[in-house]
Amino acid sequence: MFKKIFFIFLLLGSLDYVTAQEITVQAPSQVYVGDNFYVRFTVNAQATEFQGPSFKGFSLRSGPNTSSQTSMSFVNGQMSSSVSTTFSYTLTADVQGTFTVGPASCNVEGKKINSKSFSIKVEKLSQAQQQQRQQQQAQQQQRRQTFDPWSQQPREPAKIDATTLFARASVDKSTPYQGEQIIVTYKIYTQVPISQFAIDKLPGNKGFWSEDLSAGKQIKQYEETVNGRRYQVAEIRRGALFAQQSGALAIEPLDLNVLAMVQSQRRRTGSIWDLFDDPFFNSAQAVERPLRTNRLTINARALPTAPENFSGAVGSFSVKGGANLGTVKANEALSYRLTISGHGNLMLINPPTPDFPSSFEVYDPQIDDKLTHGDGGISGTRTYEWILIPRSQGEFTIPAYNFVYFNPTTAQYQTLTIEEQKVKVEAGSNASTNFSSGQEVQHLATDIAYIHPLNRLETQSGSINAPLRYVIGTLVNLLFFIVCYLLARKRLADKQDIAGVRLRRATRLARRRLKKAAAFLGTGDSNRFYEEIYRAIWGCLADKYNIELSQLNRDTVIGCLEEKQVSDAQQQRILKVLQDVDMARFAPGDASSQKQTIYNEALTMIAEL
Amino acid sequence: MKKDLILLLSLLLGTMALATPSKADCERAAKKGDSLYAAANYEDAAATYENILASGYVSADLYYNLAGAYYRQDRIPQAILNYERALQLKPGIKDASDNLSLAYSKTQDRITPLPKLFIVRWHHSLVTKVTPATWNVICQLLLFLLLASLLVMLLSRSVSLRKGALATLFASGALFIVASLLLFQSYNHRSAHRDAIVMQSSVIVKASPEERSTDKFLLHAGTKVEVDESLSGWNKVILADGNTGWLSSQSIERI
After folding, report:
1. How confident is the model at residue B64, as a pLDDT?
2. Using a CB-CB distance cutoff of 8 angstroms, which residues of chain B are in contact with residue A456?
3. How much is the mean pLDDT over chain B?
4. Which residues make beta-bridge pairs with B219?
């Protein structure tokens, strides 16, 4: 009987225990913004129809996750067992403040029980603390990225659907200007661990110039709340796009394949093996899921009417540059630099064309790009460098260069100017002049030459009397010739006449001399007599035969006589007279009779000649 | 007697008519034309130059300036015509020949000249590019040389001098004859005005001098043609490529 009563007591006791069923709450009283924490509701019985509270002010990451526990104990041969059910939530504190969490309720053996409501204080971390936290988180995330099965990750729901795993594309501007830089970001949102992903197809974006900003960079991971749910976000690709035309342009979706790790959950069998139903032993199963981002539409605005020298640059820029030397020798190089730095479509700028003086030999510019593919897009510098060789000396001016670009923030064209620069070119060395090969004159443009000043007007008829002129010219020539000829003939004739005159007066002169000699014969001056006879004979011969006095001698006289074909007898007589005169002059003998014969001989000879 | 009087009278009147605008007046007008040209008033400049030409005075420079004024007005055929006239008067104006080739480059017709034997080409350029006046000078010099050597031949007693003179005589005599022939050819070429420029923007060259005859080819303004013969308002033209045909006289202007 007692035994029975004890049993009943025991039973009652146990009943009493059962009647003390309640929901106990396990929750931190204070958390920091951004913290993840658990809230557990434990019922020490088999509970059904659990209704969780609304966690206002927090974001729900997962839950309620149900787990039940059965414990059996044998004490002194007696067995006692207890059952408890736990409903757990994982929450994230989003904002600062104190939040009250309402009661949770459940059904235990047909009886409804409620938990007490409680409050959680959310505080903000100081800057230093935050940094520390972030570091810790980063470390944690890095560990997670390796998908360590031992990582302290809360258990995720087994199911994979569009709410737990999806991919999205987003842009920072939906109505950019044509040529303006926009950033497109592709992200995977997930609540399940992912072991790896592969991009199937890169979008070929028509109408855009695109540059990859994420090449060679670590994939960024962070958490983000979408529709009240907390997701792990992996930023898988980031690109800069420059609309090349205006109007509606589509950004194609990105296809990718994701390998998600799914926790395989065994159904509780109630067997002893349930003991091993521990996360430690749970095997993760990789499930391949194809994902596709959303299609985006961009409405590119056309640029306003561009000024003439618009460079095509859209963004925010600054320029600097100029020639490296102010004074240079002819045929020596100098360089002219133009550096455009800023944020925007640097690689799409039209090559600038400064107006260099035409006597400068200009080589094609070297382009040096230093571009940074940052998260904010493409920025950096582009440098153009021209090598200039002045070919002639003098003072030259490289005119100011205007760089015109479009600033999308002010929606206006802006002009940056590189000031004009004077370059003094001094005479170069000759050696380098030889080096420069001859250059053809550059024909800048072809145009007619300028008018000529009028120097002389002619009458119409005056210009066409060529035959008349010809005739006149010929006549003048002929007349001149005739005159010349006649004059020449006359002179020749005159020259011949001199001999004639001499011939004519020869006898006369000779007679006069003989008369003189006759007078001397009378006076008896034999020397003077012979002298006169001598001069008379020789002078007569010289005049007759036109012989110069200097050439007058016996031999020339004989030559002349032979030429004139004088008869031998006559020649003999002439020579005899000459001989007699010479003899009588230089060897005077008897005077008067000899003188008389010589006189007579001379007289007859002259008469004969 | 009466005939002679009329002739004399008409001659007198003719000279008076020519003398009405004096040479000085015309030179002043030419200066005015130059300043109009400088002020880019090409139409008035051209009109001024044309007036001087109409009053009977000519000058290569005047034609040259007139052509420039027409060129500036984009009246290319007129420009070509006057450049050609300037060059005919004075073939040595380099600016004129440069401008002329520039003007020709603006015309539509591209005619490939027939390839000719070098001697023919030389002869042609000697006839067209050298004025009768220049030939006259050359002729007179040769004649002088000829007569001088004849003089030496007649008067000199030295045998070697006379031999040299004989050679010179033959050479200069032959050259004199050639130069005289060229002079008259050059004169005939100029006085016959064989070359002409197409003035209408486009003309159809006919196969025979009749309106209803078949069309041979199409010529555009500024093309140079050679007029072979004329027949009642029609001209038989020869193109540089050897094609021939008949054109009405109104469509061309003789150089």
Report:
1. 92
2. 59
3. 85
4. B203
H and E: helices and strands count for chain A: 8, 31
In the structure encoding, which two tokens stand for residue A290, read together?
A: 């194809």
β-pairing, B202-206 vs B215-220, is antiparallel
By CB atoms closer than 10 A (0-12, 13-18, 19+), residue A16 is exposed
Chain B residues closer than 8 Å to A458 by CB: 57-59
Q: What tokens appear for A103 in the block?
A: 């009661």
Contact in structure between A186 and A237 (CB atoms under 8 Å): yes
More confident of the two residues A115 and B238: B238
Which residues lie across from A92 on neighbouring strands? A36, A59
Q: Give CA–CA dist A167/A186, Å, rounded.
A: 7
In this structure, the strands spanning A334-344 and A310-323 are: antiparallel
Return the percent helix, strand and coil in chain A, to nearest 5.
30, 40, 30
Would you mind telling me the total number of residues written for chain B in this entry?
255
- Is-contact A330 A425, C-beta < 8 A? yes
pLDDT of A323 higher than 50: yes
Q: Which fold has domain B21-105?
A: 1.25.40
ipTM computed for the complex: 0.74
Q: Torsion-angle region of residue A144: left (phi > 0), alpha (psi -120 to 50) or beta? A: alpha
Per-residue pLDDT tens for A361-404?
Answer: 888 888 888 888 877 788 889 999 988 888 887 888 888 888 89
| Residues 451-470 in A contacting B (C-alpha not used; CB under 8 Å) | 451-460, 463-464, 466-467, 469-470
Up-side HSE of residue B47: CA atoms within 13 Å toward CB? 5
CATH of domain B195-254: 2.30.30.40
Locate tokens 């004169």: which residue?
A: B187
Separation in Å, CA A577 to CA A468, A540, A601, A609, B246 = 71, 13, 7, 13, 101
Probe site for chain A from B58, B63, B74 (most A CB atoms < 10 A) = B58
Residue type, A387: I
CA A235 – CA A246 distance, rounded (Å): 28
Which two structure tokens, joined as six digits, stand for B1?
């007697």
Domains and CATH numbers, chain A: 20-124 (2.60.40.680), 165-300 (2.60.40), 310-434 (2.60.40.740), 492-608 (1.20.120)
Contact B249, B230 (CB under 8 A): yes
What are the CA-CA distances from residue A597 to residues A518, A585, A592 (Å)? 12, 14, 9
Encode pLDDT of A569-594 as tens digits.
878 877 887 787 777 777 666 556 67
- CB distance B18–A458 less than 8 Å? no
| Residue A264 pLDDT | 59
Among B182, B203, B199, B194, residue whose Cα is nearest residue B245: B203
Residue A129 CA, distance from chain mean position = 52
Q: Tell me the C-alpha distance between A298 and A292, whole Å.
A: 18
Tokens of B130: 């050298």
Residue A301 DSSP label? B
Strand (E) or helix (H) holding B190? helix B159-192
Paired strand residues for A107: A48, A112
Q: A304-308, A342-346, A462-466, A479-483: which has the minimum mean pLDDT?
A: A462-466
**Prediction pTM value:** 0.42
